[in-house]
Specification:
By secondary structure, this protein is α+β, with helices and mostly antiparallel strands. The chain folds into two domains: 43 residues; 139 residues, Hypothetical Protein Tm1070, Chain: A (Sandwich), CATH 2.60.290.11. Strands 1, 2, 6, 7, 8, 10 and 13 form a seven-stranded antiparallel β-sheet that branches. Strand 11 and strand 12 form a beta hairpin. The model has no long low-confidence stretch (mean pLDDT 81).
Length: 205
């Protein structure tokens, strides 16, 4: 049954239960208990189960892994530095506010692909924490991909960063590479974006 139909039936049964409760309330002590029991049973039976609730399914396709062999001729490429914060400080006591971070890489070219060769995550001391790619991946025209640092992962610290390297076999428009931080705690929420900065351009040897 569709969710809209369940909501409609729930409204109708709610009105019916109210009518029944008014009749039961007239001169009969057991009416209160009876009316409340009817209302609760009707409302409970009309609540959609987990299996009936609509599911959100992601349509994002995982990028294809590629091998950069001798036949792959690089025309252009970049190394991009992206600031990331696994937590920030607040209050006079410098209390820690944990954050989840999502690195987003978007191919802005409308016709040609780009290849991401490396996505590395470093902590505040410049130490490598994680290499997110075992093999290079290809982003088709206008495609995007993302990499997540969980809110409970504080290994990066407040000065963490991603180093992203990409190449292309044709001249393509520059991709958008940025990080989105978000956190919520004790009815407080915070979020912002951190754009990447190109630190090296040219053709990889």
């Amino acid at each position: 049954m569709k969710l809209s139909s369940l909501i409609d039936w729930r409204s109708r049964l709610g009105a019916l239960s109210l009518t029944l409760s008014r009749k039961l309330f007239k001169g009969k002590a057991f009416g209160y208990i009876g009316a409340i029991s009817i209302m609760l049973s009707l409302l409970t039976s009309c609540t959609p189960s987990k299996s009936q609730r609509p599911k959100v399914v992601s349509s994002q396709v995982q990028p294809q892994e590629v091998t950069l062999d001798a036949n792959f001729q690089t025309v252009m490429g970049q190394t991009i530095y992206v600031p990331v914060y696994s937590h920030i400080y607040h209050g006079e006591k410098k209390d820690i506010f944990n954050l989840a971070a999502t690195l987003s890489i978007r191919n802005t070219d409308s016709s040609d692909p780009m290849v991401i060769t490396s996505v590395r995550y470093y902590d505040s001391n410049g130490k490598l924490v994680k290499q997110y790619l075992e093999r290079a991946i290809q982003l088709t025209a206008l495609a995007s991909t993302d990499f997540v640092v969980n809110r409970t992962d504080m290994s990066g610290g407040s000065g963490a960063n991603f180093i992203v390297e990409w190449v292309a076999q044709t001249k393509v428009s520059q991709p958008i590479v940025e990080a989105v931080m978000i956190g919520a705690d004790l009815q407080q929420g915070i979020s912002w974006m951190s754009p990447g900065k190109v630190v090296e351009s040219g053709v990889s040897k």
